[in-house]
Amino acid sequence: MADTPRSGPRADEQVVLLVAGLADLAVSTVGSAVGTVRQLLRRSDGADIARDAQQDLMSRGRIALDRHTVAPAHLEVLAQHVLARRATCGGDV
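The line above is the sequence of Polyprenyl synthetase; the predicted structure tokens follow.
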């Protein structure tokens, strides 16, 4: 059998390389995040930053939920308002 040049790493080598690459990426990402957290903790306006981050995340959550939910029909909403008003006003509406 003659040796033929390989076009790339074998499947098992590819898996090892992928796992090693993912691990390196995870370590560098975590290291970067830890550095960012340390910088934020040194700032005097940390509470303001945390509050702004919370509001941003809540806004993003609202947008994501709105994107994936179906809005109620307009007439259904009006009917619910009428029923609620009748309940509070004793039916004189």
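Note on the example: Residues 12-42 form one domain. The chain has three helices and no strands.
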